[in-house]
Amino acid sequence: MPMWVWSLLFFVVAVVAAPGLLRLLHARAPRAGLDFNIIDDAIHHLDTEDEPWTVFMEVRVAGAIDEAKLRGAVRAAMGRHAMARAYQRRWRPWQTVYEWGVVEEVAIDPVRVADVVHDARASFLSTRVPLDEAPPFRIVLVRAPDGDRVLLCFNHAASDGVGTLRFLTSIARAYSGQSDEVDPVEDRAMRDLARNTEPRTWLERWRRLAMLRRAFLDAVVAPPARIAAVHGEDAPGFGCARRVVPSDVVASKPSGATVNDLLLGALHVAIQRWNAGHALETARIGTMMPVNVRPKERWNEAVGNIVYFVSISTSVEERADLASTVGVIAKQTREVKEQGTAAALREVLFASPTLLVEVKRKLPVLLPLGGERFIDTAVLSNVGRVDAPLVFGELGPATELWFSPPCRMPLGLAVGASTYEGRLFLTFRYRHALWNEEAAEQFADLYLSVLESS
User: Fold this and answer.
1) 190, 217, 251 — which closes off a domain?
2) Which of 148, 189, 210, 433, by CA, is between 20 and 30 Å from 201?
3) Buried b vs exposed e over 264-279: b needs ≥16 C-beta within 10 Å?
């Protein structure tokens, strides 16, 4: 048999056998400390100086923010969320689990002030947030004639997009003097994804394994396409292009599809057309999509990584037009929701506590040796509709809310979406190695034209 067939068989056997074996080898009582959960652990080593792995949010207000009042609000918000006061404890190479430490009072002032919006944003997006001392986030207050901005970057090892939005909400509530109830005990329990998302039945486990098998086979037989690089340069960090979409555009989504399906479909079609315009063939496009796995009653609560990632793929034939593409994608996302396969990655990451820390630190180095086949074409992350406006005291509700997830070459584009006050805000975060600013703006225009064709 061909080598890839043997590799596939070994992968399936290993994944099937791993959960039971690990229960025997690593069954233990819950620890008193605060361990990295399996997602914290998986993404921690992706964070580098050149490609900071941060979750970005930005709000704009109609006026000037009181700096002292903002600092007080940030302190109050930190007091309500343990992960906002967390740092990575010192580790030893023979350990198998990283640990978070949580301080009562942070020694670092996480807030600074700037006065040039574009430069401040680009610099902020391209700056790593260290974890060796609390807090695991930074804030920039940008002074601007058309309204101040509050920029927030959270190290992704400490929180996902929903958690970052929740922390920003706490800041706004504290600034306004509003109540902000948080249950830290329940938040801590929700973070234990290995236990909370264990398959309940053999059928559920089988469906997860089937999804993993398909993903593995796709990576081996039809690796994901890459986005055509245009005027990219060998420079660290990120740039971003931004667009605001009127509500009537997303309201015209095809029947049976969600807004997220529409955004994914438009991204697949836009990449297809972009590559065609730059003489690059495009076979399978895969987009990484985060899936929030918080309990429904606390869907927008808890600072931390309570999320899994799934890959949504289309072939050339399935991208004939936007409606067809959205239909294909909607079928895949429905399957994820109905069959519980969003947590399929758990069946692989569950093995993480068996690996020495020193081994895990070396794993990203292996990506160029074939691991890039498992890296999607692009990322699309949607924090959804924010029902309650973020109010900043006498300044009133924020007028804009922007969000973007991180990305890493060869996946050089991450699209972040947030729906706020009746408008959809899109951020196209890109690596400088992929595009320059002009190319990024051209792609954003192309994406918007595809989206408006719905």
Assistant:
1) 190
2) 189
3) bbbbbbbbbbbbeeee
